[in-house]
């Protein structure tokens, strides 16, 4: 199964509470944080919710 590398590129200040919670569930707390997550339906849904705040790099 492939993994997806996710990087937080924009600030969470001003984002909605559910978007902040989604970023935290992915392990993203500060600008520049990166995490590697499995490429499955749950992760894709989380990415779609905060796509304007993150950059995705497939590995």
Task: Name its key features.
2 helices, 59 residues, alpha+beta
Structure description:
The protein is α+β, with helices and mostly antiparallel strands. Helices cover 31% and strands 27% of the residues. The chain has helices at residues 17-25, 41-49, and strands at 3-8, 34-38, 54-58. It has a three-stranded antiparallel β-sheet with strand order 2-1-3, with no helix packed on it. It is globular. The model has no long low-confidence stretch (mean pLDDT 94).
- Strand pairing plus helix content: what structural class? alpha+beta
Arrangement of strands in the largest sheet: 2-1-3
Output the number of helix runs: 2
Give the overall shape. globular
> Ends: how far apart?
11 Å
Beta-strand percent range: 25-35%
Spans of at least 5 consecutive residues whose pLDDT stays below 50 are none
| Helix percentage | 25-40%
Q: Would you tell me the overall average pLDDT? A: 94
- Quick one: biggest sheet? 3 strands, antiparallel
In short:
The chain is α+β, with helices and mostly antiparallel strands and 59 residues long.
List the topology elements.
Blueprint: E1 3-8, H1 17-25, E2 34-38, H2 41-49, E3 54-58
Antiparallel strand pairs: 1-2, 1-3
